[in-house]
Amino acid sequence: MHRVEIAHRTLSRACGLALAAVVLAPSAHALEAIPGGSIVRIEKISKADAYFKQRKAVVGLVCGVGADGLHPQNARWYGGALTCNDGTEYYFYEVAVELGDFGVDYPTLTGHALWEPKPGDPIGFGGAPADAPLASGPVATAVAVAAPPAEVFDFPAGKMVKVVDLAPADALHAEKSTLVGRLCVVVESPLHPTSEGHYAGRLFCDDGKSYQVFMAKVVAP
Hints:
By secondary structure, the protein is of the alpha+beta class. Helices cover about 15% and strands about 30% of the residues. The strands form two sheets. Strands 1, 2, 3, 4 and 5 form a five-stranded antiparallel sheet that branches.
């Protein structure tokens, strides 16, 4: 009996340790951020996303990830900007994607580089000009390219805005009369420009509700 009791205690302790290891170990399925310039295919859209009603047209699209990347919203969904092979730029709050190349790269799919220098931006420093041949030998000076300047957003997270219009292409256009005129706070990430004067992102408004807009005009109150 004594041996049986010891064996039982040993087994119970082993099971307890195994259970603790399972509970404390990080999930093998935890999402990691997807960097800008990656190619993904849309697999599923959350019911909480503004594009859920358009999911039949959107699921299956191959898209390029915007410069800010896709960021995990929870254990299943990503949020961020995508430019897809239907020629549309989307801003999703909760979307599931598959990472791959799908036979296309970012510039070919989107029609532009991930980051393109604007007039006045530095394009290099030190060394030879970018279009000059490099000198031979062990003392050759390599061309150093400056990193892209940090992007400045008109409406960063935490900023108060007033909604003044919603474009017909916005999934929330039917609620335009409810939203226009409301004071809202930009939440989670900055508003991203989607077309001339329009922005996409997440807003928490003075009616106590959150909205994901795609083509909204906002101003500082």
